[in-house]
Amino acid sequence: MSESLKIARSCRHYAMCKIDFLGSGVCTSGLDKHYVSFYPQGRMILYEGLAENKIPVTEKSIEIAASCNLCGKCDFQCYFITELRPTKVMKSLKEFISLHLQSGSEVVHSKEDPILNEIRSIVGEEWASNDASILYSYSHDLSPISSPKMPDYVVLPNSREEISELVKLFNRHNIRYTVRGNGSNLLGFAINNGVILDLNRMKTIEFDEKRWFVKTGPGVTAFELQKEAQKRGFRINAGEPAAMICSNIMGSGVMSSFSTTYGINADNYVDAEFVSDDGSIFNINDIDSPNLYAYKNLNHSKSPGICTSANIRLHPVTKDESGILIPFSSLEKAVNFVSDCSLRHIGIAISILGTEYISNFLAPTKKSAEEIKMIFKEKLKIPFLVHLIGDSYALTAIKHMGVTFIDQKLLTALYLGSPSLNSASWLNLVSELSEDEPYAYLRLKHIAELVETALEPSPELLATTVDPDLRPFYEKLYSRAEMTDMVWLTEFRILSTRIGRRKGFLPILIYLPVDYALIKEITDQYISIAKELQIEHEFGFITPIDHGKRCIYEFDYFFDHTDLSEIERIRTAAAKANHLIDEYSVKNGTVRGHPYVLYQGFSRKENLLYS
User: Fold this and answer.
1) If you write DSSP's letter for every residue of 370-386 in order, what string do you get?
2) Dist. CA 76–CA 86, nearest whole Å
3) Which residues, including other chains, have CB under 8 Å from residue 511's CB and lie 6 or more apart?
4) CA 337 to chain CA centroid, nearest Å
5) Contact in structure between 17 and 27 (CB atoms under 8 Å)
6) What's the pLDDT at 585?
7) Which residue stretches of the chain have pLDDT < 70?
8) Which of 504, 489, 239, 481 has its CA nearest to residue 361?
């Protein structure tokens, strides 16, 4: 297998190449054409399909290959997340098409048909396609549960009126359709044999600061909306950066470490607009609208329609917010601490992180992540960190609680000095300094300055860990303060997608009481399932919600999405994990699994947590 094909097959389908999360710009052809195939992700999928003879060379294949100017932006973005170099695939795609044309081989012309013509009469000639090179990029995702499905058409509407007319057309012709955000659904619900409605063009953003909400269209991503909110002194409770806000809420309700304060599900919005299954338009707050605030217990709910806009809550931001990391030697101690903070309303965002998250957040590469993971576990004896964002009053309260912590200045030194950590002789003295009290060295008055002296942190040092040709970009990137700022990184979440850098992952998400005994019991069974099936696994995170009474808990299973045997095992693991959640839901009464929130993200969290 060629290097280009290996890279193409390794795409994680995170759609991060569709947002400007590094300030390096976005692929111009993608911004112009909007179809996935014109973004780096889509070109990688297209090249894999052509190279493996899964689809023929079409008219659009030629256009898509030609639209890439080999600017290299995708290398900056994809390397930052997955350490992949897509530009090699872009070059191979161009070469493949060039050789195909030079050989005089056939170029397939997509055939028009009555259905396509009807669709185009609604959205316009350019915004509906049945060309195989367009369709193939929508045919599969990273989900280990789903199987590839080639759609018949891909359509990009631009208004609720167009969506309404399309739904009526599909009903008349009995055509199945699936609504797509950015296609990163890990349960495989973004693919379908019929029509894919890609809402990427619907990027309207209208702020109403007086009433503290922003009305957003379904094509707006979390990163884009957070960026606009920040300009106005607000933030939103946002999911993954490339996730489209409307689909993220609708699918399972937005969850983040800010959910400790801002909540989940219906807490995130004040109203939303839908196109129903019959093509009619309704708002959730209409007195005669369907009741989406309710929750259907332990049941995969049917989609209530297509969300065409949502009024998202805005949260004011104070100027004295900062982040800290509090080390703990055990999960039990960390759980008790976050429960105490949440009950006392201390902190805006709180989460417990394991070493998998910690190391991937700090490390630019997989190799350096493994080194940092070892250092935290074996040398620093920190298997768990509580990540907390708070204002000056919250941080003062934390100090009075008597815990030691890593502040922003120290974190920046550790972050930019991480390449020197493994060879830092002073780490061997840490255990001696902490004989009487764990992590007592963090109480040293000038610990940040001492670490700076020992590690000599700098953007240039951090850049030594990446490919030589990318070092100038990384030096410039990490010269920007926000790239090490805990508040900014927590708001925009650009580091969390690194969790799938080494392998694809399937997060097992549950809501349960903040009860360590119960958490340990369920964790042990997750681990037992993973060991039985020989699946790599790690603790993910815990975020307290509902004033410390409940929490969101993620446990992660990792798998190679190009290995059929691993896919089969991860499917079995997912089934066993869901069965386990079912048992606890019935037995315990206060445990709910993430799969059962599907299409119920607009519901009130009380229905989910207390039913």
Assistant:
1) HHHHHIIIIIS--SEEE
2) 9
3) 545, 550, 551, 552, 553, 591, 592, 594, 608, 609
4) 27
5) yes
6) 85
7) 1, 186-187, 297-301, 426-436, 595-596
8) 489
CB of 156 closer than 8 Å to CB of 34: yes
User: Residue 578 burial by CB count (10 A; 0-12/13-18/19+): exposed, middle or buried?
Assistant: middle
What CATH homologous superfamily does 502-610 map to? FAD-linked oxidases, C-terminal domain (3.40.462.10)
Beta carbons of 412 and 461 less than 8 angstroms apart: no
Cα–Cα dist 35/240, whole Å: 21
pLDDT in tens, 318-337: 999 999 999 999 999 999 99
What angle (nearest 5°) sits at the alpha carbon of residue 76, between those of residues 70 and 78? 95
Domain with CATH 3.40.462.10 in the chain: 502-610
Question: How many other CB atoms are there within 10 angstroms of residue 324's CB atom?
Answer: 24
CB 45 within 8 A of CB 142: no
What is the model's pLDDT at position 396?
96
CA gap 86, 478 in Å, rounded: 22
Nearest residue to 582 (alpha-carbon basis) of 510, 514, 524, 515: 510
The candidate with the shortest Cα–Cα distance to 225, out of 254, 185, 191, is: 254
